[in-house]
Amino acid sequence: MKTMQRLFGALALCAAAAVASAADRLPVVASFSILGDLVAQVGGERVSVTTLVGPDQDAHVFQPRPSDARTVAGARLLVVNGLGFEGWLDRLAASSGFRGTQVVLSQGIKPRRMAHDHDDHAAHDHDHDHGGIDPHAWQDPRNVVLYVNNLVRALSQADPAGAAVYRRNGDHYVAQLLELDRWAAAQFAKVPQPRRKVITSHDAFGYLAQRYDIRFLAPQGVSTEAEPSARDVAALIRQIKAERISAVFVENMSNPRTLQLLGSEAGVKPGPRLYADALSVRSGPAGSYLEMMRYNVRTIVAALAKP
Ligand SMILES: [Zn+2]
């Protein structure tokens, strides 16, 4: 009986501690939904994470509202991708009076240069803020291992008492990333290399392409800000026909108009949406980064496998 009382006493103490710590969770703001998920995975119960660009939203054309400035002002840690992805962020952080630490998760990855195969692209006004660097580095799970290590370090500096927890959560998540990478490689290996050609509306899958040896063609370029020119679309239609490409996709945060047009004129039906720069809502097919990657890989492989 004494033991039971002691046990209940201990449980009550634990509950009190948990309630107290909820109030002093480390306030972290992530620039977009994929990074928000990484913070939740690594930070667990010790952090409270807010995401600026939410599920199914487009970070390329995001326009911060006054409430976003208040959110950023309250953060101890501001977690961003970098590589020019969040063009709106510096101004937002400066105007909000943010006094915390900003951490760039892509630090240390090998940036992918954009291959500008058509020089006439200057004709349509495409986003060059990122200096020819492809910002979508999270599309290679091995890069996300570096993201997680950067995040573990930043969280541990902001909250030293949690360092062991962050390290443990980080290691656990890295193991899942490596498992994802092995699985994805095995899935794509089932498709003969010459068949691995995919069309998406904007060029968000360069790192995935590089990692798993797939060719992605995108009429919209690396950002979603510019619509492709009629000439780009016509060139792509010729290519779809000449190379008999069956895998055509739109992304969750993009305007699907161009691609639907492409599909109808080239006689291919666009496949299901892929998740490029944003997760789905929690109950959707891409509610977390790991789910998003598995969903995309399965969807692409299924389209490529079609005769
Ligand atoms: Zn993008």
From TrEMBL:
Question: Which SUPFAM superfamilies does its entry note?
Answer: Helical backbone' metal receptor
Q: Give any GO molecular function from the UniProt entry.
A: metal ion binding
Biological process (GO) annotations held by this record are:
cell adhesion; metal ion transport
* Keyword Nucleotide-binding tagged: no
Query: Which keywords appear in this protein's UniProt record, sorted alphabetically?
Result: Metal-binding, Signal, Transport
Signal peptide range = 1-22
Subcellular localization is given as: Cell envelope
What Gene Ontology cellular component terms go with this record?
Answer: cell envelope
Primary localisation category: other
Per the record, the similarity remark reads:
Belongs to the bacterial solute-binding protein 9 family.
Q: Under what name is this protein listed?
A: Metal ABC transporter substrate-binding protein
Q: Which organism is it from?
A: Chitiniphilus shinanonensis
Give the gene that encodes this protein: csbL
